[in-house]
Amino acid sequence: HADTAMYVAKSHGRGNFQFYSPAMNVATHERLLMENRIWVALGQQQFELYLQPQVSLDNGRVVGAEALLRWDHPELGLTGPERIIPVAEESGLILALGDWVLARAVALMAEWKRDGFAGLRMAVNLSARQCHGRELLPRLDRLLADAGVDPSLLELEITESAAMHDPEHTRHLLRALRERGINVAIDDFGTGYSSLSYLKLFAIDRIKIDGSFVTDIETDPNDAAIVTATIGMAHAMGLTVLAEGVETAAQRNFLRLHVCDEAQGYLFARPMPPAQFREFMMRAKGQALGPLS
Ligand code: C2E
Ligand code: MG
Ligand code: MG
Ligand code: MG
């Protein structure tokens, strides 16, 4: 722990680096171990994309799903992205992992097509490094063409900070994606430190309001103001809005009242393995998910 390390270093005087190195070695060792595990996992098919429904607030129907990375490790158990993505980002493994994610997502889209889930959108998270590499567009073209999947059913989610890392590159990338009919959503909207000016620079389709603004939406006037202003601004710019982290009927009702287009959250369904999502969709059969008001 950082505080402990500082304390130890201080108590032994300046320049005593030995008290840092054991901690660093542990961290480095952990990281290398994790990197190695990720490589093995890619080879052994230990990763999976869980699917969380995205619901239209107009009619309560499922309009898409977000693909969320999960790792079923033989010893570590089921692990979420927060333990995987940061290590993968730093080591460069994110490119191999991100490529696996894209391939798996497109394969699932082909399954949906066979299952007759017409018009269902697949939302996939992109890492900053994936956005800035040169492989993304050719890779997407090949995957979609080989699978015979409609590009307009694919949506790529990028965060403000990933987009703003190299705005000029992002602007070209998003143009190229739009030419292909691929949708782009800004993820975790409002949580970065970017100015709003990027919104007019980039060809985007959707804004995803971060769940942190949704939690207290009915009780915190500031959250309510941020959410309603975001919806108004997005609509005025011709963008659609999806609210993340919707857990209660009251939150959904607030969002519906303020004409938010779509929502995603535990109220509707948790992220689930693809087979379970398939059953979920078969059961739902285009019906609304619960009462709308
Ligand atoms: P995100 O893209 O903003 O995804 C939404 C997160 O909120 C997911 O966490 C989801 O499980 C969680 N969530 C959904 N509904 C609710 C709710 O009602 N309440 C609460 N409290 N949480 C909810 P998850 O799956 O742990 O993913 C965390 C983040 O990891 C994602 O945030 C995304 O940034 C990243 N991520 C996930 N999969 C991938 C991937 O394949 N590639 C990359 N690059 N990043 C990924
Ligand atoms: Mg996302
Ligand atoms: Mg998000
Ligand atoms: Mg997030």
TrEMBL record:
Domain of life, per lineage: Bacteria
Protein name: Diguanylate cyclase
Organism: Massilia eurypsychrophila
Subcellular location: Cell membrane
Domain EAL positions: 31-285
